């Protein structure tokens, strides 16, 4: 059997005024935080992918605009999309 080497991360949505407390609770509970704010990574959603024509094109355009040091996350609806995102070089694949 293969062992999974991923992470379970908490939602990026937090209660107004409780962001730091809720992010801390994730860490204490053994989960990873998604991100602290919008500046921490590029997130490609369905509208970005549609506009670029494909997941691969969207990742390439994002990498070109953001540079090599910014992580790129792709929100995927199914395994096919997730595999394309991984093959395109996405740093994070989020199954929604």
Description:
By secondary structure, this protein is an alpha/beta fold. The chain has helices at 19-28, 46-52, 55-66, 79-88, and strands spanning 41-44, 71-76, 92-95. A 3-stranded parallel β-sheet has the order 1-2-3. Strand 2 (71-76), helix 4 (79-88) and strand 3 form a beta-alpha-beta unit. Helix 2 packs across helix 3. The protein starts with 18 loop residues before the first helix and ends with a strand. The model has no long low-confidence stretch (mean pLDDT 89).
List keywords for this structure.
96 residues; alpha/beta; 3 strands
Low-confidence stretches: none
Using the alpha-carbon principal axes, give the shape: globular
Helices and strands: which structural class? alpha/beta
- Main sheet summary: 3 strands, parallel
Summarize the model shown.
This protein has 96 residues and is α/β, with parallel strands linked by helices.
Secondary-structure blueprint of this entry?
Elements: H1 19-28, E1 41-44, H2 46-52, H3 55-66, E2 71-76, H4 79-88, E3 92-95
């Amino acid at each position: 059997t293969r062992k999974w080497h991923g992470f379970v991360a908490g939602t990026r949505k937090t209660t107004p005024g409780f962001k730091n407390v809720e992010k801390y609770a994730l860490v204490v509970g053994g989960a990873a935080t998604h991100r602290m704010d919008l500046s921490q990574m590029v997130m490609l959603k369905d509208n970005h992918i549609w506009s670029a024509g494909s997941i691969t094109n969207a990742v390439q355009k994002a990498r070109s605009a953001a540079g090599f040091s910014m992580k790129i996350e792709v929100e995927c609806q199914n395994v096919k999309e997730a595999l394309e995102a991984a093959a395109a070089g996405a740093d994070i694949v989020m199954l929604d």
